[in-house]
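Repro:
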Amino acid sequence: MGGGKALVFVAGQVPLEDGQLRFIGRVPTEVSLEDAQAAARLCALNILAQVEAAAGLDKVDVVASVTGFVRSAEGFGEQPQVINAASDLLADVLGDAGRHSRAAVGVSELPRGVSVEIAAVFVVRT
């Protein structure tokens, strides 16, 4: 029997919903902190969808790491509060397997102007 483990790398997911980008702009001047948190949750849902397609959520052993990027206005330093929304969602969905190390980084630009982008690495059973 297998019993092995593999890594699933999920490239940066943006707040895409029904084929449409949401939450465009810098936090907090163009996108509120609350909306940025909603964007982070949407990114996390998209990450989970990618893992489900690649391996199945039932095979997740642990979320190894999450890296969140927040398109930030000058002087904004609450990136962890934004990415907490994604971290909380992963823990809610995956339980103890959803606990992870994390980085929350402020950046000046993200693809197509989105406010949040999140990448993750999962350990899955094969």
